[in-house]
Design brief:
eight-stranded parallel sheet, 38% helix, TIM Barrel, 9 helices
C-alpha cells in the first residue's frame, strides 16, 4: 500500500537537493503505480524486464521508465522501443547491444555507466580504479545518436555503517568527476547524472552529491 505522506516527504526532500526521485515499483500492482502517477510522479524504476514490459503496456505513456537492475544483452530488445534511462551500463558489450537495438528502433537511448563501489562481490559494475577503461572499448563516435552516456550509477554496501556508505558514494562522485575532467565525456553536456541512493541510504547519497535516487520500499510502509 502506498504511504502518501512518506512519498510526499521523500519527494520534497529529494527535490530540495535538486535531485530526481525514481520511484521503484517492482512487485507493486498497477493501481499503486497509477496512484503515484496521479500524485504527479513520472519517473519509475523496474529491475525485471518482463514486469517492466507489462507495466509499460498498461500504464500512461508519458511515464519515464528507468531500468535499474542487471540487464542481460538478450533482453535489451524488449525495452529498447520505450525505455527512458538504463542505469546499469556495466560492460562495453551491453552498451554496444543497446546501441544496436536503438538503431533498429530509430531511437537514442540514455545509459548510465554502472561502477562497482560496494564491498559485496555479488554486485555488478565497472572498476572505479580505471574508470576510463570502458571508453577504450567503446567507439563513442559510433555510439553518437544511438546511445547517450549521461552519467554514472553505483550501489553501496548493505551495511548500517553510515561512514562506509558515505565513503562509497564519495568514490562514485569522484569517479564521475574524473571522467568529466579527463575524458571526452566532459564534452558531453548531458553527462551530468550521479544515480546513487536507495530507501535505506538516499539521504547519505544526497549529501554526497547524488542527482538521482531510487527509492522503493520506503514509499510503501
Amino acid at each position: 500500500m502506498l504511504n502518501v505522506e512518506m512519498y510526499q516527504a521523500v519527494k520534497a526532500e529529494v527535490e530540495s537537493a535538486n535531485a530526481t526521485l525514481v520511484a521503484v515499483t517492482k512487485r507493486q500492482p498497477l493501481e499503486v503505480i497509477q496512484a503515484l502517477y496521479d500524485l504527479g510522479q513520472r519517473d519509475f524504476g523496474e529491475n525485471r524486464v518482463p514486469e517492466l514490459v507489462e507495466k509499460h503496456a498498461a500504464l500512461p505513456k508519458d511515464i519515464r521508465w528507468h531500468f535499474i537492475g542487471h540487464l542481460q544483452r538478450n533482453k535489451v530488445k524488449a525495452i529498447a522501443p520505450f525505455i527512458h534511462l538504463i542505469h546499469s551500463g556495466d560492460s562495453a558489450r551491453l552498451i554496444l547491444e543497446i546501441a544496436k537495438e536503438a538503431r533498429k528502433n530509430d531511437r537514442t537511448i540514455s545509459v548510465l555507466l554502472q561502477f562497482h563501489i560496494a564491498q559485496e562481490a555479488s554486485k555488478y559494475g565497472l572498476s572505479p580504479t580505471q574508470p576510463a577503461a570502458i571508453l577504450r572499448e567503446l567507439k563513442l563516435d559510433e555510439l553518437s545518436g544511438k546511445v547517450n552516456l549521461v552519467g554514472v550509477m553505483g550501489m553501496a554496501t548493505y551495511t548500517e555503517l553510515d561512514e562506509d556508505i558515505a565513503e562509497e558514494f564519495a568514490l562514485l562522485r569522484e569517479t564521475f568527476e574524473t571522467l568529466k575532467e579527463t575524458t571526452s565525456l566532459g564534452e558531453i553536456a548531458a553527462f551530468k547524472e550521479i544515480s546513487m541512493g536507495m530507501s535505506g541510504d538516499y539521504q547519505i547519497a544526497l549529501q554526497q552529491g547524488s542527482t538521482m535516487v531510487r527509492v522503493g520500499s520506503l514509499l510503501y510502509q
